[in-house]
């Protein structure tokens, strides 16, 4: 039973208020993209056992989407930030590094 | 190896059961095998078994990071059915179900396949049409199912409340030869048979790297040393993504926690398996008398084998609505497993971008029923290098082509 | 004989006798009794049968760990199977029956299994019942099922109610013994909000029984004053009858409160499930005594030493006149002393340790009790009741030195901390060699959201078995548990208790240590599931070496007590069989709940009418009052049809269709989704969402649109109206409103967040009524106020005005092919409009129609229905909807996906009409077949039926379907098998079978 801080309304939200939205920071590929990129965008997933970035919606709260940095092996939460971000902010990366030195996710570290 | 039988039991009883063989050996790994299977769950063991039995490939090791059968094989709700809609699904699940029919005799290990019948309740007009469609599809696929009315439902399962105020039972898809089996016994039976064929089951052996040269697999590194192999099969539900990463490719897979629970045991009151998808719950009664109940998955990636309790609440609430008597039973135990969900919720039995490396994963919430068929198809793929008819549709390439096998036909809701 | 003593019993009220029945016999106990103590007081030692061998079973424990004492409790709607007698409070009129026997408890046919026990070792069923194959289902399995199962299945609907509570606290303390009380006190003194819960009716735990001295006063006094202090603190809540059931991630705890089990006449819910979020959780759950493994340790009359003491001290009940005590530790001497002090006889204390000489031992000797050291029990005599024990040397193989007659045995194999809650959420254990126990490893706690431990274990649960250490541990932990900045305001000094010296316990896993196979086959580990020492040894021998394998193979610890008594003993036997140290063998996983909790409580109040929210349209009352039959659509219930007296539903549908086509039909369309999309970028946004162009739609006009996922599949459809320059109203399907709203928000917030668009779901703000049929215009004109003429309001236009005095928006759209107006008014005025339409329409022949008539009419017109023609695998191109797919747009959701090879494949199944040659109605869900079979032996299919109805308009069956290259095969006849194998011949035709020219649209 997770609790996540909604960075929009500031509430510590229980999982029952939230909807999970899968892997974050996916780059959308549209018409004109090659098969590889399009398949990667729609289907290929990091699915790490460890540090992960994922989308959540505060559905039964403020309705806003945000991104959580979380460990899928321990459920530790490193931080949350608005979904209107194309990459994790530095303070989130620092928070992860403090807890999981040497972490990596896609091309991030 | 000593055969199991009533006579063998009687003989052993007279000498205090001191003469039984080990069900399987626990050898140290050798330096090289023709085939290494990673994952000694039901699917991995069945793959090894059919490699030996159907293809004569017996120089095989099955490596397992924990204890055999300790993943989803040992923590599911044991339902076996093949009443699937899409042709490729129906084919592999029906192959599997038919193998279950004779598995105890074949393995000389009682897996307690109990063809007690599986019914899927239709509780909306949409479901009525959906299950009638499945019944038609099954008739053409050679899967014996029928669409039955509410009175027949009540007859087959008297504890169902068919006149619920919100979701009355309008009918059901009924598969009389569906049922359950004893999950641990399936893993143990295959393990015993593999060991008997001379295969090595290596437990407590975690893979740390997949070794390759010039685009082909050459072996694995493990906590028990390096093991070379000509062909590698990855059959590690829940951890497929981790293994794929070691092998250098990505998968269209997410790992989620799926939960289940059992009640305390009571005297037999339910002879069939019931699945109620509208309210979302399914239940059967084990031979011990426990009501075995399947719950939902969390929506987020989770490797803890623990789920969130509100899913249990929702499941129990739904089942009380359908089976009011359940309210006065008690939950004995709840647990979780890690399931691989693919992009179309159907499994993957496929070659991979790495040569001679094959993968079997993505069985989602329904892998137990598929164990024999999946092993059969995977063994065929690994032996011949190309997928046979059972596996053909389940390749990794389908996502790129958009050729999905989507069983969730209720995705669009009516009106 | 077990009986009630003349004096004693701190928890019972001898002035209040309570009558109850057991197996039809009326018995008498006292208020304050548990069912277990009351049964023992009535010499009902045997109260059940074991699972496998149907061995006689008596109570062995006094609390939640009891494996044997399970009964069918109560009658009718209050019936409950597998009620544990040790945790069932006695009340007047209680009715209990023993379980798992036939025909009676005393004479049980199933006990024949016991005679054949040697043929039924662990896992015997894996090795037999294999041949012949058909016997499993019809003979073997029914036999196994019938003999298993324990309690009866409830038959009635549950008459009780249940509810959920939420609590948010700084500190949750689980367990109301002295450790829990002290921890709560220390935590509360720092100002933290504390919730302290206790599973029984009483506070103080074991200390209340043994009454050690705390702070110079008897423990009973300390408990009372501490409780008073806690009760007086505004930041503390205390709850008894409430068990900590489970611990989950991020500080979530589940507790099960039994409100009326002990007083069934009390109004209100029976159980309450508490969902607690706690900053810190302190578990003070105590420890459970372990049995010893000696032959015959399962015979009724063999009890845990502490349990025997509980029955004496708490309830004034003795299990027997002559009790032999057998132990490997000093604590069991307390039982011997209590027995003698109660005037009962202890013929001997058999201490397996070679030497023991603490104050307790001396006290026992001083009381004249014979103490034998280095001795154990070779065998218990008696079958349904202990009659004596044979003594042997613990060091030997079981040669009998002496037989002692007795009618009870008190055994103690040491104590196991209750670490369940700690383990539920990932806390790890370490093996304490000295005390032979697993206890929590404080360095590897369950981790919370911040990655730090959020659980602390105190007292006996943490491995501290002595009073002084328990209290100090509790005070320390509570200090550490509260927030760092509050630590100064610490919880005060820990109370002081003087503990006498004790000789260390010595682990004893087999008694005697060299017991023969014959004895090992009579040593029970799991009393309920009938797992013996020999079974675990067999499992190890056969290669079931992992603790999980051994557990599952033997069923050790899988009974309703989940191995509270058996796990450690079984593990030790396995460890010895494998010659591997216990910590390396490891433990099985503890899973919630700690003890079973009612399904009713898990479900909570949401049952029957409250099961799920029911969404009601403003016209729902009218539908219900006018005989509608309903179908659930999402959480709505839509009228399916309105059968009249004597009319079948089918006939009603036919009438409704005909009436709508000939006069006027009224449909409650309020459930259709209505999303307002507004903003400078709204048009651009909708162009991405719909396959066609919406930005070009003129104000005042409507356009039909299709929405796809980015994976290309059709997910929804509906009519879009442009309300103003920057505002569009998007209609969705009934089931789609929330889903599509979420879909829009997802794309707006996560992909195109710089676009200026707002979306509002106004579905429930409006009632929407479809007025359909050739006389629809006449009816609206009768109501007056808006010009609805063909010229003023052409097809696919909308107008705003005041209709019958009600502000309304009128859309000229049609899902039936008839002249049709959909009138939207504020929800609160929907009923008024409907009433006017019904009243004014009567003369014109207006009647309501339901969803089935709607379906039939749209199918006659070849209109698709999301969920019928689509199933998540269909793309718009499959449905011949290319006209609604923009070729000009560079991008829309799904466009790239639809370019993939399989989706662009000309061999896809495509929408056509199907006309049966003989006019029959094709069954729902039927497939069209081709020649032969595929590689898997399945019949080749070339299409499927997506919608099929009897058309009252045409007087024959009509259908739509997706057929391989369908549109190129017009006129071809294909085969569609019914389920019975008979073939329906159907001709491929245009999907529109009614008014192809669209002449009726304008009335």
Flag low-confidence runs of chain A: none
Return Rg of chain C in Å: 38 Å
Shape of chain A: globular
Looking at the overall shape, the CATH architecture of the largest domain in chain C is 3-Layer(bba) Sandwich
Distance between the termini of chain C: 94 Å
Structural class per helix/strand content of chain C?
alpha+beta
Kindly state the number of beta strands of chain C. 52
Please give the share of residues in helix of chain A. 10-25%
Mean pLDDT reading of chain C:
95
Show unreliable segments of chain C.
none
Task: Describe the fold and architecture.
The complex is a heterotrimer of chains A (109), B (415) and C (1003). Chain A is built from 2 helices and 6 strands. Chain A has 109 residues and is an alpha+beta fold. In chain A, strand 1 and strand 2 form a beta hairpin. Chain A starts with a strand and ends in a 10-residue tail after the last helix. The longest helix of chain B has 17 residues. The C terminus of chain B is likely disordered. Chain B starts with 5 loop residues before the first helix and ends in a 14-residue tail after the last helix. In chain B, strand 13 and strand 14 form a beta hairpin. Chain B has 2 domains: 191 residues, FAD/NAD(P)-binding domain, CATH 3.50.50.60; 154 residues, D-Amino Acid Oxidase, subunit A, domain 2 (D-Amino Acid Oxidase, Chain A, domain 2). Chain C folds into 7 domains: 113 residues, Ubiquitin-like (UB roll) (Roll); 197 residues, FAD/NAD(P)-binding domain; 135 residues, FAD/NAD(P)-binding domain (3-Layer(bba) Sandwich); 71 residues, BFD-like [2Fe-2S]-binding domain (Arc Repressor Mutant, subunit A); 145 residues, 2-Layer Sandwich (Gyrase A, domain 2), CATH 3.30.1360.120; 92 residues, 2-Layer Sandwich (Alpha-Beta Plaits), CATH 3.30.70; 106 residues, Elongation Factor Tu (Ef-tu), domain 3. Chain C is built from 25 helices and 52 strands. Chain C is elongated. The mean pLDDT of chain C is 95. The chains are: A alpha+beta (109), B alpha/beta (415), C alpha+beta (1003). The interface between B and C is large, with 125 and 130 residues. Strand 16 of chain B pairs antiparallel with strand 33 of chain C, so a sheet runs across the interface.
């Amino acid at each position: 039973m997770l609790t996540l801080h909604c960075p929009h309304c500031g509430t510590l939200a229980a999982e029952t208020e939230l909807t999970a939205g899968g892997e974050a920071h996916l780059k959308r590929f549209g018409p004109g993209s090659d098969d590889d990129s399009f398949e990667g965008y729609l289907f290929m997933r990091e699915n790490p056992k460890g540090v992960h970035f994922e989308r959540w919606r505060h559905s039964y709260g403020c309705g806003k989407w945000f991104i959580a940095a979380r460990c899928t092996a321990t459920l530790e939460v490193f931080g949350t930030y608005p979904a209107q971000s194309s990459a994790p902010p530095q303070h989130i990366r620092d928070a992860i590094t403090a807890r999981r030195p040497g972490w990596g996710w896609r091309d991030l570290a | 190896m000593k055969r199991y039988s009533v006579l063998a039991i009687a003989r052993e009883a007279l000498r205090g059961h001191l003469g039984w063989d080990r069900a399987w050996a626990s050898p140290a790994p050798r330096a090289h095998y023709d085939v290494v299977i990673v994952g000694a769950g039901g699917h991995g063991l069945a793959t090894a078994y059919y490699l030996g039995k159907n293809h004569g490939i017996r120089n095989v090791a099955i490596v397992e990071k924990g204890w055999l059968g300790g993943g989803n094989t040992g923590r599911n709700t044991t339902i076996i059915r093949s009443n699937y809609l899409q042709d490729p699904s129906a084919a592999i699940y029906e192959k599997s179900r038919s193998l279950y029919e004779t598995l105890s005799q074949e393995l000389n290990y009682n897996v307690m396949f109990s063809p007690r019948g599986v019914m899927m309740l239709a509780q909306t007009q949409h479901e009525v049409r959906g299950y009638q469609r499945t019944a038609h599809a099954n008739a053409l696929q050679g899967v014996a199912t029928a669409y039955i009315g509410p009175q027949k439902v009540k007859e087959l399962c008297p504890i169902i409340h068919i006149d619920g105020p919100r979701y009355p039972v309008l009918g059901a898809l009924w598969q009389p030869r569906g049922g359950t089996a004893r999950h641990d016994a399936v893993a143990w039976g295959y393990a015993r048979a593999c060991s008997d064929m001379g295969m090595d089951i290596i437990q407590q052996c975690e893979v740390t790297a997949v070794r390759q040269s010039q685009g082909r697999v050459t072996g694995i590194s493990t906590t028990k040393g390096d093991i070379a192999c000509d062909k590698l099969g990855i059959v590690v539900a829940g951890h497929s993504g981790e293994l794929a990463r070691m092998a250098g490719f990505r998968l269209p897979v997410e790992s989620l926690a799926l939960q289940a629970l059992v009640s305390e045991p009571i005297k037999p009151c339910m002879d069939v398996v019931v699945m109620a998808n509208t309210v979302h719950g399914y239940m059967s009664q084990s031979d011990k008398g426990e009501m075995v109940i399947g719950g939902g998955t969390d929506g987020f990636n989770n490797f803890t084998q623990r789920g969130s309790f509100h899913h249990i609440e929702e499941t129990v609430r739904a089942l009380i609505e359908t089976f009011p008597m359940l309210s006065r039973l008690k939950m004995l135990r709840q647990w979780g497993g890690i399931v691989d969900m693919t992009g179309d919720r159907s499994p993957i039995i496929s070659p991979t971008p790495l040569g001679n490396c094959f993968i079997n994963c993505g069985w989602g919430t329904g892998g137990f029923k598929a164990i024999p068929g999946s092993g059969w198809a995977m063994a065929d793929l690994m032996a011949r290098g190309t997928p046979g008819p059972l596996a053909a549709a389940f390749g990794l390439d389908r996502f790129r082509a958009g050729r999905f096998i989507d069983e969730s036909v209720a995705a669009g809701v009516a009106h | 004989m077990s009986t009630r003593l003349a004096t004693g019993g701190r928890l019972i009220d001898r002035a209040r006798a309570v009558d109850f029945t057991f197996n039809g016999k009326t018995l008498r106990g006292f208020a304050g009794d548990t069912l277990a103590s009351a049964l023992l007081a009535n010499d009902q030692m045997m109260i059940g049968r074991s699972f496998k061998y149907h061995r006689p079973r008596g109570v062995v424990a006094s609390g939640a760990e009891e494996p044997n004492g399970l009964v069918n409790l109560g009658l009718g709607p209050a019936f409950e199977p597998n009620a544990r007698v040790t945790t069932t409070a006695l009340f007047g009129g209680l009715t209990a029956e023993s379980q798992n026997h036939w025909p009676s408890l005393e004479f049980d046919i199933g006990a024949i299994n016991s005679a054949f026990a040697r043929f039924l070792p662990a896992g015997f069923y894996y090795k037999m019942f294999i041949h012949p194959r058909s016997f499993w289902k019809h003979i073997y399995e029914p036999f196994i099922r019938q003999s298993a199962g324990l309690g009866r299945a409830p038959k009635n609907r549950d008459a009780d109610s249940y509810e959920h509570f939420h609590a948010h606290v700084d500190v949750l303390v689980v367990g109301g013994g002295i450790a829990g009380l002290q921890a709560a006190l220390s935590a509360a003194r720092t100002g933290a909000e504390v919730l302290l819960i206790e599973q029984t009716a009483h506070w103080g735990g074991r200390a209340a029984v043994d009454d050690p001295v705390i702070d110079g006063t008897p423990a009973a006094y300390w408990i009372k004053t501490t409780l008073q202090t806690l009760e007086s603190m505004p930041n503390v809540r205390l709850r008894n009858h409430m068990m900590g059931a489970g611990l989950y991630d991020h500080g979530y705890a589940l507790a099960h409160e039994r409100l009326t089990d002990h007083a069934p006449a009390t109004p209100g819910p029976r159980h309450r499930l508490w969902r607690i979020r706690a900053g810190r959780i302190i578990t003070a759950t105590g420890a459970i005594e372990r049995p010893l493994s000696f032959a015959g340790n399962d015979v009724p009359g063999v009890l845990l030493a502490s349990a025997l003491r509980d029955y004496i001290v708490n309830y004034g009940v003795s299990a027997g006149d002559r009790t032999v005590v057998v132990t490997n530790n000093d604590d069991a001497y307390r039982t011997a002393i209590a027995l003698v002090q109660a005037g009962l006889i202890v013929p001997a204390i058999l201490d397996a340790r070679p030497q023991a000489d603490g104050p307790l031992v001396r006290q026992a000797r001083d009381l004249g009790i014979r103490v034998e050291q280095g001795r154990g029990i070779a065998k218990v005599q008696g079958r349904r009741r202990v009659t004596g024990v044979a003594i042997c040397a613990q060091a030997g193989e079981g040669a009998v030195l002496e037989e002692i007659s007795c009618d009870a045995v008190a055994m103690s194999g040491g104590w196991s901390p209750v670490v369940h809650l700690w383990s539920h959420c990932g806390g790890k254990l370490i093996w304490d060699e000295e005390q032979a126990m697993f206890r929590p490893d404080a360095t590897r706690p369950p981790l919370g959201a911040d990655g730090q431990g959020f659980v602390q274990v105190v007292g006996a649960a943490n491995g501290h078995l002595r009073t002084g250490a328990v209290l100090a541990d509790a005070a320390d932990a509570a200090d550490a548990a509260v927030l760092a900045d509050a630590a100064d305001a610490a919880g005060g000094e820990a109370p002081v208790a003087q503990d006498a010296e004790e000789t260390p316990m010595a682990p004893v896993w087999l008694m005697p240590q060299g017991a023969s196979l014959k004895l090992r086959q009579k040593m029970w580990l799991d009393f309920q599931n009938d797992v013996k020492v020999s079974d675990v040894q067999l499992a190890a021998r056969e290669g079931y070496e992992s603790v999980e394998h051994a557990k599952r193979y033997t069923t050790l610890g899988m009974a309703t007590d989940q191995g509270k008594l058996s796990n450690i003993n079984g593990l030790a036997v396995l460890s010895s069989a494998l010659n591997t140290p216990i910590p390396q063998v490891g433990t099985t996983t503890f899973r919630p709940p700690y003890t079973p909790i009612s399904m009713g409580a898990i479900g909570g109040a949401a049952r029957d009418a409250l099961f799920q929210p029911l969404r009601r349209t403003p016209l729902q009352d009218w539908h219900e009052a006018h005989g509608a039959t309903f179908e659930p659509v999402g959480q709505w219930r839509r009228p399916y049809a309105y059968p009249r007296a004597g009319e079948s539903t089918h006939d009603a549908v036919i009438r409704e269709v005909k009436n709508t086509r000939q006069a006027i039909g009224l449909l409650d369309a309020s459930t259709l989704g209505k999303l307002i999309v507004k903003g400078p970028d709204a048009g651009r946004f909708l162009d991405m969402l719909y396959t066609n162009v919406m930005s070009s739609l003129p104000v005042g006009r409507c356009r039909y649109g299709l929405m796809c996922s980015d994976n290309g599949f059709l997910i929804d459809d509906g009519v879009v109206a442009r309300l103003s320059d920057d505002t569009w109203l998007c209609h969705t399907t009934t089931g789609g409103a929330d889903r599509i709203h979420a879909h829009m928000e997802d794309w707006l917030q996560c992909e195109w967040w710089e676009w200026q668009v707002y979306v509002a779901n106004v579905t429930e703000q409006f009632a929407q009524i479809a007025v359909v049929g050739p006389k629809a215009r006449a009816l609206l004109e009768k109501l007056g106020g808006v010009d609805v003429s063909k010229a003023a309001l052409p097809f696919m236009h909308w107008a705003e005005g005041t209709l019958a005095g009600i502000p309304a928006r009128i859309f000229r759209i049609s899902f039936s092919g008839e002249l049709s107006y959909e009138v939207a008014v504020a929800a609160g005025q929907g009923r008024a409009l409907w009433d006017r339409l019904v009243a004014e329409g009567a003369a014109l022949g207006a009647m309501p129609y339901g969803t089935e008539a709607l379906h039939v009419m749209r199918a006659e017109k070849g209109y698709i229905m999301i969920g019928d023609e689509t199933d998540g695998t269909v793309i718009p191109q499959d449905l011949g909807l290319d006209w609604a797919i923009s070729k000009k747009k560079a991008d829309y959701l799904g466009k790239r996906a639809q370019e993939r090879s399989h989706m662009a494949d000309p061999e896809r199944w495509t929408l056509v009409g199907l006309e049966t040659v003989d006019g029959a109605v094709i069954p729902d869900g039927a497939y069209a077949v081709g020649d032969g079979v595929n590689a898997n032996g399945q019949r080749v299919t070339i299409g499927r039926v997506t919608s099929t109805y009897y058309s009252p308009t045409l007087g024959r069956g009509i259908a739509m379907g997706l057929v391989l290259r369908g549109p190129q095969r017009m006129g071809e006849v294909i085969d569609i098998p019914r389920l019975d194998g008979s073939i329906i011949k159907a001709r491929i035709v245009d999907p529109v079978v009614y008014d192809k020219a669209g002449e009726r649209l304008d009335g």
